[in-house]
Amino acid sequence: MFCKWDPNELPFDYFKRIAVITFSQLFRDPMTQINGIKVIYDFDGTGLEQLKYGTPHNLYLFYYMAFSCIPGRYKEAHILNQNTVFNFLLSIIKRFLSEKMKNRVFVHSDIRQLLNYFPKSVLPEQYGGELLDMHATNFLQTANKEQKKNTLAGQPNFF
């Protein structure tokens, strides 16, 4: 949730670095490389303090990073709790996207709509699912454990 990011506490440059590290770690998993990812962006509580960083330059930077610098299979992006300002930013972002990716961006007005795209077992409870613990700190700890198994020297063959 972007509302938890406080730009006064964590400068935007560090926020960008964390985004790069998170996506890099996410795509280290061989099964993710094969299957791709679906992302849920929840903008509940996001205000102008965070959205003021949504300049065309920064939006393009994140687009370019995600689609040109980090190899990955992006299946779907689901957007929740967007406000009027974010709808404007989304119209800017969509100008960068290919037609294929535009068709994979879904804006939901009701959280229950996520159940049409995700099984309950992989959704956190707050989105109508059954997953009890889904915090970024736990994700990074798990990702770091996986990194020890899947080093840069090579990854296990799953086939």
TrEMBL record:
CDD domains per UniProt: SEC14
Domain CRAL-TRIO: 1-135
Domain of life: Eukaryota
A Pfam family annotated for this UniProt entry: CRAL_TRIO
PROSITE patterns, per the entry: CRAL_TRIO
GO molecular function: phosphatidylinositol bisphosphate binding
SUPFAM superfamilies: CRAL/TRIO domain (SSF52087)
Protein name: CRAL-TRIO domain-containing protein
Source organism per UniProt: Larinioides sclopetarius
